[in-house]
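Predict structure. Chain length: 322.
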Amino acid sequence: MIQQFADWLIYNICNLDPTSSLGLALNFFVYDSLKIIILIFVISIIMGIVNAYFPIERLRNYLQNHRLFGLQYLFASIFGAITPFCSCSSIPLFIGFVKGGLPLGVTFSFLITSPLVNEVAVAMFLGTFGVKATAIYVISGILLGTIGGIVLGRFHLDRLLSDWVKQIQSNSSLQASKWEAENVHFINRMPGIITEAWRIVRGVIIFVLIGIGIGATMHGYIPEGFFESYLAQDNWIAVPAAVVLAVPMYANAAGIVPIIQVFVAKGVPLGTALAFMMAVVGLSLPEATMLKKVMTWRLIAIFFGAVTAFIILSGYIFNIIL
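Prediction complete.
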């Protein structure tokens, strides 16, 4: 129905040629904008229900007070996946975890996965690439955070935290969890969850429109073979090149997935495109600047280097299995 509406609006009402670059670009823009906004809203409601019954304070207390034999990394990574944050938005929560005394490796698991996998990205992936690619994307993002947290945790990098964090850690303790709606009936929680879902949509809609606008322009105007020549499957350097080029191009998942869709449509292997997307949303210069408050530059370099290596490896694996 959405595609039919886009065709009617662009080709019948606006009377644009379906074979023209402008017609193709505008049709792509209308169709993807409506589809993605609807999916984001629906999945944000679903994840709002999950978050309402699994608050941050409860997770923090549980991880600190129980021996989980390594599962805390997986749990932190899953929690990162269900929180709707980009890399920069994840920083305040990461700081809260570090201040609260959680193991640094566990907090890294959250920080790695949080921008890579969230309801916005899942909604867009589901509508764009289908169930199989979405499942691989979600599972790989969670595993990336889990393994990355375990590896970084093994190096005992707490000594490389900033002096500000060390001072805060020595004087702070976790506060008791307070969740006002815990005893409120589910039906009475729904208006707030829906309102929050709409707030998420409003917060990301500009990124969605800009991203789709760029994607639509590429879809309509980029010559055939442009991306294949730089990121072709038989070019072994394509994946690391895509990751390196992505770092300065910071965006959140809502802004980059439509571009990835066009990459794939233009012939770029899905694994290479996914590696590019993960680097865009998971590694950024603004994130590094914000992390300087809690980390030394050496720790930031170690963190970015490890995540970069994992993303490149994931890109190669994706290209094999997808």
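Summary: The CA atoms of residues 88 and 289 lie 9 Å apart.
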